[in-house]
Design a protein that fits this description.
The complex is a heterodimer of chains A (246) and B (316).
Chain A (H helix, E strand, L loop, with lengths): L1 E5 L2 E3 L7 E2 L4 E2 L6 E3 L1 H18 L2 E8 L4 H10 L3 E6 L5 H15 L3 E5 L10 H9 L3 E11 L2 E8 L2 E8 L2 E5 L11 H7 L4 E5 L7 E7 L8 E3 L4 H10 L5
Parallel strand pairs in A: 1-6, 1-8, 6-7, 7-13, 8-12, 9-12
Antiparallel strand pairs in A: 2-5, 3-4, 9-10, 10-11
Helix pairs in contact in A: 2-5, 3-4
Chain B lengths: L1 E5 L8 H12 L3 E7 L4 H4 L7 E7 L7 H15 L3 E5 L2 H14 L2 E6 L10 E6 L4 E7 L4 E5 L14 E4 L10 E6 L12 E5 L10 H10 L2 E4 L1 H5 L20 E5 L5 H7 L4 E6 L6 H4 L2 E4 L2 H19 L1
Parallel strand pairs in B: 1-2, 1-4, 2-3, 3-9, 4-8, 5-8, 11-12, 11-13, 13-14, 14-15
Antiparallel strand pairs in B: 6-7
Helix pairs in contact in B: 3-4, 5-9
Classes of the chains: A alpha/beta (246), B alpha/beta (316).
Chain lengths: 246, 316
């Protein structure tokens, strides 16, 4: 089974969110980048589990610059076999997806996995776009993936419930919680990652459909109004008269 | 020019469908709703009340197949000459809207929370950094797709029922086979809910959820829970709100016995009003809440249920 796992960098969840250049750019000052958790914990680890069970190869791919090789080495240390970096700054989902799709088309993978979304832009766009570019079915927000030959059974959470679907390889899926458990790379993995193949591919000329022109921070929350636990009538009255939500 | 709104109709029409139509109507052009599946035409006609001029329904496409839905919408775009497509940002939209973006060469705003501004371009506000900031997305392409976050706009009735036309969108073969769908009946859908009552480990065990359900019932609210509670199996996974679960933005979020870890807040910080009930005065939730009650859930919640009952009785 040839599996391609798309990974993205994301600021560590505890990073301070601030913007520079007149609120047009994310302020990277002091920000530690990690592998986007959905890509790492769910997509990558499930791909490795499949490989460990039935054999195959797991390739990771990212669109990013030289600095992003740190997250690539992390993913290799967890157990991916080889890596590809497309040398460009990923500013737009279509741009990013098309770069990856172009590579995937040449190599014909059986399965392409992404995380359900990145924790910085939360767009949930790249997986579906890759699927359309490759004309493959796309299972979004999958929480379970099992293979039987070339038939895959996937579970996905739908509003208020669960759906089980079946597709044949090749297909694209985005992975959500439930798919696998986080793995911590061991020393052997970290050492091995240093010598695993990392191919850098020049960027293809592809237009961007969208751009972020500015950012704003939410208004500072006013102090929490404390209510006497013996006086729930007051809370209900405030929710009705002041907050006007009931 | 016209705007197409894709409507998920296999479970009837939800509030998010009316929101999407209202949103499209406010953009000022003719609004055409498109749907697939077996929904009753008399039900679909109601979309006219919110501003749709007609509904196109393709009965041959599978409402769970993103590839088929994408083809049907693309056919509707070319037959109507529409240059904008609006979705409600639900699970179907998360699969279909990116596909359609590629197919139509149309930039996508995923999770819009405002109407577009056409001041020097075309841009919409979205949540970024898991709700910790807002971004302004500028769409550079001629055709545009907007996926609207639920509860970002109030549905408005502006007209009357519209016509419903059968439509053949040439969906092609379905490559996805649905083996089973489990869906509890009668509950209020969490992403659409205006009021949500949520509880965490502070409740000490699944047997104590009765009072949370009572409170939700009295308020007409949906129930939710924190991640640890879903992980240990006290509550079903689809109730889990937070960074790895469902992100919601109700008008009122009542958090009982949830400390308010950053990952939980990421899923609820779009709520308009937050009430936190916790024994620990230092719980981080009190920093994110509008109203706080320091006290034991087992004392406070039953009192709150009684207070809401009294409120309901005096308001009916």
């Amino acid at each position: 089974m040839k599996i391609l796992v798309c990974i993205s960098k994301a600021p560590d969840t505890t990073s301070k969110i601030a913007f520079s250049e007149n609120n047009t750019k994310f302020d990277e000052n002091g920000v530690q980048y990690i592998v986007n958790p959905y890509d790492e914990w769910y997509a990558l680890v499930r791909a490795l589990e499949i490989k460990e069970t039935i054999g195959g190869n797991v390739t990771i791919i990212t669109v990013g610059n030289t600095a992003d090789e740190a997250i690539i080495r992390k993913a290799l240390a967890i157990g991916a076999d080889d890596a590809v970096r497309i040398d460009a700054e990923p500013n737009d989902a279509y741009f990013t997806a098309s770069q990856i799709a172009k590579y995937a088309k040449e190599k014909s993978f059986d399965i392409v996995l992404t995380g359900k979304e990145t924790i910085n832009y939360n767009g949930s766009q790249v997986g579906g776009m890759i699927a359309e570019e490759l004309d493959l079915p796309f299972i979004s927000l999958a929480t379970k993936l099992d293979l039987n030959g070339t038939t895959a059974t996937l579970e996905r959470e739908i509003v208020g419930g669960v759906q089980v679907v079946e597709v044949s390889t090749p297909f694209v899926a985005s992975c959500a919680k439930g798919m696998a458990e986080q793995r911590i790379p061991n020393m052997r993995g970290i050492m091995a990652a240093r010598t695993k193949p990392l191919t850098v591919i020049p960027v293809s000329s592809i237009e961007e459909f969208t751009s972020y022109t500015s950012y704003t921070m939410p208004d500072a929350k006013s102090a929490c109004k404390m209510i006497n636990p013996e006086n729930m009538d007051e809370l209900v009255a405030l929710l009705h008269n002041e907050a006007k939500v009931i | 020019m016209s705007t197409i709104v894709y409507i998920s109709s296999n479970n009837g029409l939800g509030k998010s469908a009316f929101e999407a139509i209202t949103y499209a109507k406010k953009m000022g052009e003719d609004v055409i709703a498109v749907t697939v599946g077996n929904a009753d035409s008399n039900v679909l006609a109601e979309l006219g009340q919110y501003g749709a001029s007609k509904v196109l329904v393709d009965r041959n496409a599978n409402s769970d197949d993103d590839q088929q839905i994408t083809k049907v919408i693309a056919s509707a775009v070319s037959s109507t000459g529409a240059n904008k497509v609006v979705f409600s940002h639900d699970l179907i939209a998360k699969a279909v809207a990116p596909r359609l973006s590629v197919r139509l060469k149309a930039g996508l705003v995923a999770g819009a929370i405002s109407l577009p501004s056409t001041d020097g371009g075309f841009s919409c506000k979205v949540n970024v950094f898991s709700g910790k900031a807002f971004g302004n997305v500028n769409v550079k392409t001629e055709n545009k797709i907007i996926s609207l976050l639920p509860n970002s706009i109030q549905p408005e009735v502006t007209g009357s029922n519209c016509s419903v036309e059968e439509f053949n969108g040439n969906a092609g073969e379905s490559k996805v086979k649905v083996l089973s769908t489990k869906k509890p009946e009668g509950e209020i859908s969490l992403p659409e809910a205006e009021l949500v009552v949520s509880a965490g480990r502070g409740l000490k065990g699944p047997e104590n959820w009765g009072m949370i359900e009572d409170l939700a019932k009295e308020l007409g609210a949906a129930t939710a829970c924190s991640r640890p509670v879903a992980d240990i199996g006290w509550r079903p996974h689809h109730e889990h709100v937070g960074q790895t679960g469902v992100a919601i933005r109700p008008n009122l979020y009542i958090a009982v016995g949830i400390s308010g870890a950053i990952q939980h807040l990421a899923g609820v910080n779009g709520s308009k009003v937050i009430v936190a009930i916790n024994t620990d005065a230092e719980a981080p939730f009190f920093k994110a809440a509008d109203y706080g009650v320091i006290g034991d859930a087992f004392d406070v919640v039953p009192k709150l249920v009684e207070a809401v009952k009294k409120f309901n009785a005096s308001n009916n």
